[in-house]
Amino acid sequence: MNPQLQKLVTIQQMDNEIAEIQELVDLIPKQVAAGEKELEGKKGALNTLQQEIEELKKKRKQCEQDVQAEQDRIAKTKAKLPTVKTNKEYSAILAEVDAIKGKIDGIEEKELEVMEALEEKEAQIPDLENEFNGERKKFEDYKKKKEEELNRTRTELQGLQDKRQEAAQSVDARMAMLYEKLRKARGVAVVTVEGEVCQGCHQQIQPQVALEVRTSPDKIHQCQFCDRYLYYIPKPEEEETETAVSK
Ligand SMILES: [Zn+2]
Predict the structure, then answer these.
(1) Which SUPFAM superfamilies did the record assign (predicted)?
(2) Ligand 1 centroid to residue 178 C-alpha, Å
(3) DSSP 3-state of 190
(4) d(CA 26, CA 165)
(5) What distance in angstroms lies between residue 231's CA and the mean position of ligand 1's atoms?
(6) CA 173 – ligand 1 centroid, Å
(7) Tens digits of per-residue pLDDT, 101-158?
């Protein structure tokens, strides 16, 4: 094969490999971010529970304050007793005190319910915390592994890019330019010919050109349709036959 063309084939292989590795380099941070988001979601259950507990604690405090306020009212009401003049007034005050006591009973009943709910919720915390800590540990291990993978892959990528740059230095400037242009526009710049068909655009090229690609591999050929550089990989048995013929 023409040495310049051979170089382009090698560079194209490197570029394919570089593109593949670059994809992995781009993918790894996304994988870590997705894992982190999943972990945040798992923390959501714990957060919700903690919020519910805070709410219940507020309610309990409110009940305590309400009971205190009602007890103050009882004290104030009872303070009126020494000044009463009639039985009717006396009974009225006692009735008021009883009513307040009834109200306190109601509040205390509610407070008990709140405390039971609080106890129940607080009992769920350790399990949920353990579960979450386990998940977090798992994620941290995963993240560490992925960061190591990213570093390894970046080093590999850099090595390949250096090698590629070195290989590109000895390529004919015009060919290198067309290679870049084709690579950008069509993805693949150097393709094989099978039979008389360009494996880049899959069109049938001139039989004469197809023949020349096969028989004069030292020359540089391009597809008349897609401009791609053409080369030919002899099949093992064909090579034998052709060698036999040429002898
Ligand atoms: Zn073509």
Answers:
(1) tRNA-binding arm (SSF46589)
(2) 14
(3) strand
(4) 21
(5) 11
(6) 22
(7) 999 999 999 999 999 999 999 999 999 999 999 999 999 999 999 999 999 999 999 9
For residues 157 and 21, is the Cβ–Cβ distance under 8 A? yes
Distance (Å) from CA 210 to ligand 1 centroid: 11
Residue ranges with strand state E in the chain: 190-194, 197-198, 221-222, 229-231
> Could you tell me the pTM of the whole model?
0.70
| For helices 3-79 and 87-168, angle between their N-to-C axes, nearest 10 degrees | 170
Give the chain's domains with CATH numbers: 3-168 (1.10.287.1490), 173-246 (no CATH)
Question: What's the CA-to-centroid distance between 3 and ligand 1, angstroms?
Answer: 21
Distance between Cα 170 and ligand 1 center (Å): 25
- CA-atom Rg of the chain in angstroms: 42
The mean pLDDT of 38-48, rounded to a whole number, is: 91
Q: What is the number of other CB atoms lying within 10 angstroms of the CB of residue 181? A: 12
Distance from residue 33's CA to the centre of ligand 1 (Å) = 42
Contacts with 9 (C-beta within 8 Å, 6 or more apart), sequence order: 1, 190, 231
Exposed e or buried b per residue across 95-126, where buried means at least 16 C-beta atoms within 10 angstroms of its C-beta: eebeebeebbeebeeebeebeebbeeeeeeee
The residues that bridge with 193 in the sheet, in sequence order, are: 198
Helix, strand or coil, per DSSP, at residue 197: strand
Q: How far is the CA of 5 from the centre of ligand 1 (A)?
A: 16
